[in-house]
Design brief:
By secondary structure, the protein is α+β, with helices and mostly antiparallel strands. 36% of the residues lie in helices and 20% in strands. The model has no long low-confidence stretch (mean pLDDT 96).
């Protein structure tokens, strides 16, 4: 410990090091349940690339593990500390270095908060689409680490589709530049995409070149009430089959609707079994909403309410944004899954989750990015009750098994971390796991970067 701190102090300002155990303990974990976390030896908050390089050279010399962190809003334990590690928090590297309206790119440091970037580019008539629900807190570096999604993915895609290039500090302190600033480029293997979603296990992202889009018109939304989740999911399939491109297509089940009403008194229809929210940011959104409304009625919607203006649309969408906080208020703890299935199997996923909730005697609410099949079953439980905690964990595993049975994936946007390590092996298979471990070894032969995660 003394040798570690001495070496770190040789290349870092005093304020970049935190050694007080009461403070370092607050950096030990992210927001996931059921994920073990160790005790870090020290927390480092660098402000420059050179300082990150110094940390990694020190770690390599002394064989000390390093756990990279952003804002710790993750839900898989990917940012959890291991015993004796260096926690490398990138939140102080928070500069927007460049915004180019001509090239339609932004160059940022990893600690830039998603909402901060979105507002900055918006002032120039540009748009950075990835919008995780934690966008007011989460950082671009964390978004890259877990390949985050958001409400707009159905039309605009996820983080991976907006990362053009990266500057990465490798495990031994060398600096690697990947990708490009240009609209096109196919030189060599796509190492940039490899780092996106790698959860800090291959290198430390210290700079990112991000693609931007022109700012779209403000969106208009509608809400459709259904007598069953199956009917709502049928509407989703009809909407996508007919070639519509909504900017948002979200679903809330009965449990979620009631939780939102209980928390925020929003007046949502508690008689509904499923509420579908659809929005368009097209030149004529009212016409698109009218067409979608007819498809919803054809699928059995009992009520379709289109918004008249942007303000009313925002009120409708606020209900969806309130879903996770509302479910978190149901019990003392939650486990939030993010199983993604083909759109055609979305109904089976939601109905299967309801059966799992009944089997284990638990409250499980489902909100979903329905347009891309990404479900968020939220298991609500009392963490002080050992039996209920056990049932919560068991139900979580059954939900992931169901997703795989339906041709899906165990994680659409939250990542693997600690929580889903066992399930990653099942999804990848023996050959896939062997190759992924080989990639990890090529970038981090000593196994110092975020050990115990993914594999």
């Amino acid at each position: 410990m003394d040798a570690l701190l001495e070496r770190l102090r040789a290349g870092l300002p005093a304020e970049a090091l935190i050694t007080d155990p009461d403070v370092t303990a607050s950096y030990a974990h992210d927001m996931a349940s059921f994920c073990d976390a160790g005790t870090p030896a020290v927390v480092v908050l660098p402000r420059s690339v050179e300082e990150v390089q110094h940390v990694m050279r020190t770690a390599t010399a002394l064989r000390v593990p390093v756990v990279p962190q952003g804002a710790r809003t993750g839900l898989s334990g990917a940012a959890n500390a291991s015993d004796g590690c260096i926690v490398l928090s990138l939140v102080k590297m928070d500069r927007i270095l460049e915004i180019s309206p001509v090239d339609r790119i932004a160059v940022v440091e990893p600690g830039v908060v998603n909402a901060t970037l979105s507002r900055a580019v918006g002032e120039l008539g540009l748009y950075y689409p990835p919008d995780p629900s934690s966008w007011e807190m989460c950082t671009i570096g964390g978004n890259i680490g877990t390949a985050s999604g958001g409400l707009c993915c159905v039309k605009y895609g996820v983080t991976a589709e907006y990362v053009l290039g990266l500057e990465v500090v490798l495990a031994d302190g060398r600096l690697l530049n990947t990708g490009r600033r240009t609209a096109k480029g196919v030189a060599g293997y796509d190492l940039t995409r490899l780092f996106v979603g790698s959860e800090g296990s291959l290198g430390i992202v210290v700079k990112a070149v991000l693609a931007l889009r022109p700012r779209p018109p403000q969106q208009l939304a509608l809400a459709a009430e259904f007598p069953s989740a199956a009917a709502a999911c049928d509407a989703v399939c009809r909407i996508m089959e007919r070639g519509h491109t909504p900017s948002l297509l979200e679903l809330m089940d009965r449990t979620t609707v009631r939780a939102v009403n209980a928390m925020a008194s929003m007046g949502l229809p508690e008689s509904t079994e499923a509420l579908l929210l659809c929005a368009f940011d097209t030149p004529d959104p009212a016409a698109d909403l009218a067409a979608v409304g007819e498809l919803c009625k054809a699928s059995g919607a009992t009520e379709v309410v289109p918004a008249d203006d942007v303000a009313e649309s925002e009120l409708l969408l606020q209900a969806r944004r309130s879903a996770l906080p509302a479910l978190e208020a149901v019990k003392s703890a939650t486990m939030i899954d993010d199983v993604c299935v083909p759109r055609s199997r979305l109904g089976a996923m939601i109905e299967g989750t309801a059966a799992i909730a009944e089997k284990f005697g638990l409250t499980i609410g489902v909100c979903a990015h329905a347009g891309d099949g990404n479900t968020h079953p939220v298991v609500c439980f009392d963490h002080t009750d050992p039996d209920e905690s056990r049932r919560a964990r068991a139900s979580f595993d059954e939900i992931m098994a169901l997703g795989l049975e339906l041709g899906g994936t165990i994680t659409g946007e939250h990542g693997v971390g600690v929580l889903k390590k066992e399930w990653l092996a099942r999804e990848l298979g023996e050959v896939g796991l062997e190759l992924q471990r080989g990639i990890k070894s090529a970038f981090d032969p000593l196994g110092l970067l975020n050990p115990g995660k993914l594999f």
